[in-house]
Amino acid sequence: RHASVQTAHDTGSHRTGKLGAQGIADADRPIADLQGIAVAQFDRGQLQGDTKESTWSRGHAWMVYGMVVAYRYTKESRYLEYATSAADYFIEHLNADGIAPWDFQSDDRQTDASASAIVASALYEMSRYQPKRKALHYRGWADRMLETLCSPDYFVGDKTDCLLDHSVQYYHLDHNVNRPAIFADYYFMEALYRYRSIHNRK
Q1: Rounded distance, CA 140 to CA 169, Å?
Q2: CB neighbourhood size of 158 (10 A)
Q3: pLDDT digits (tens, 9 = 90+) for 85-103
Q4: Most buried of the four, 12, 63, 94, 180, by CB within 10 Å?
Q5: Distances from the Cα of 21 to the Cα of 24, 26, 55, 56, 131, angstroms
C-alpha cells in the first residue's frame, strides 16, 4: 500500500503541479523508473505523444482516472484536486463532440475514442465526490462523451470484434492509428455501467 500511495503522490505532484497552456507537459512529464518505493526521473518527455512538449490525450486520461482511484482508496483531498485539475484541462481541449484528439497540441487532429472513454468513466466516479453543482458539470461532460461514443460514428456494433472504432493505439506506427482498441471497449463498458448507476436506469 505504501508503495502505491507514494507512486500516486509522486505522479500527481510532478505531473499536475504546474498545469498550464500545455497541460501536464508543463509538469516536466517524468518518465519514471520505479525501484521499490523510489521514483527516479531519468527523462523529461513522453513516448507516445506528438512531441516531448505536447499532451498525449490518453496519457492525460490515465492521469485523471488514476488520481480518482487514488482518492477512492485514500480519501486524501490532494488526489481529488489532482484529478479535478487534470479533468478540467482535458475538458477544455476536447473537440466539440466530446471526443479527444489523440494529442492536444498536434496538428493532426486524429481522434482517440479510448481517451474519452477513460475520462468519461473517471468523471462519473469523480462526480460522486464533488458538491452538487460541480457533480452535475462533470456528469454532463461524461454524458456528452458517452453519447458520442454510442453514435454510429464510433460504435461499430457487430462490424468487428470490438465495440468502438477510432482509437489511436500507437500513433507512430501507421497500422495502430484509427482502429478499435480493447482498452477503449473496457472503459466504455465501465462508463455505461456507471451511467446507469448514477441515472438509475436499467
Answers
A1: 27
A2: 6
A3: 999 999 999 999 999 999 9
A4: 63
A5: 9, 8, 10, 14, 27
